[in-house]
Design goal:
mainly alpha; 3-stranded antiparallel sheet; 5 helices; 6% strand
Length: 182
């Protein structure tokens, strides 16, 4: 357990440090955040044609309400926590890779639900928006990460049994006498 915790923290710090670098911001974070806005707008337009996305902004063209998807709201930080947990846990690499890809999908699907719900909550009531944004959805996204990780652990194959101990050879016991009771 200590090994897992130390590895988890080291990987977590390394991934968060990498995320903050300008090359990762421009090559991964910003493109993903813009894609998240486009995906959200695309889904919303299935039932509401008054929504557009430009950059990381999602806007209602009727009333002008807009949300900007910022760091912490794009699901990348939650993904980093999940990746660090799966890499730190002792599991076969094949299962880690499958777990990371399916886990990232699950986290991002919920994050899209989060973005869309906050977009409509904000148009309805800003106090509720602030509460849902700062408290409810933060907790739900991290709970999603925990549940995905726990389900992944349950689905891992059992560890292989340890190899059988080598039988002691008769010659090793040749010079010893069994103990006798007085």
């Amino acid at each position: 357990m200590l090994r897992f915790f130390i590895l988890f923290v080291v990987i977590l710090v390394a991934l968060f440090a990498a995320e903050l670098t300008p090359p990762v911001q421009s090559a991964v974070v910003l493109p993903w955040t813009e894609a998240l806005a486009r995906i959200s707008a695309g889904l919303i337009t299935l039932f509401d044609s008054h929504v557009v996305a430009f950059g990381k902004i999602l806007q209602n063209t009727t009333n002008g309400f807009a949300v900007s998807i910022e760091a912490g709201c794009n699901g990348i930080e939650a993904a980093i926590v999940l990746i660090a947990a799966m890499l730190a846990f002792p599991a076969p690499w094949k299962h880690r890779v499958i777990g990371i890809f399916t886990g990232l999908f699950a986290v991002q699907v919920l994050n899209i639900v989060r973005v869309i719900s906050l977009f409509y909550i904000g148009q309805w009531n800003m106090k509720v928006f602030e509460w849902a944004h700062l408290y409810l959805w933060q907790a739900l996204i991290m709970l999603d990460v925990l549940i995905v990780w726990l389900v992944w652990i349950r689905m891992l194959p059992p560890p292989p049994p340890p190899p059988p101990a080598a039988p002691s050879s008769p010659s090793a016991n040749a010079g010893t006498q069994p103990a006798t009771a007085p």
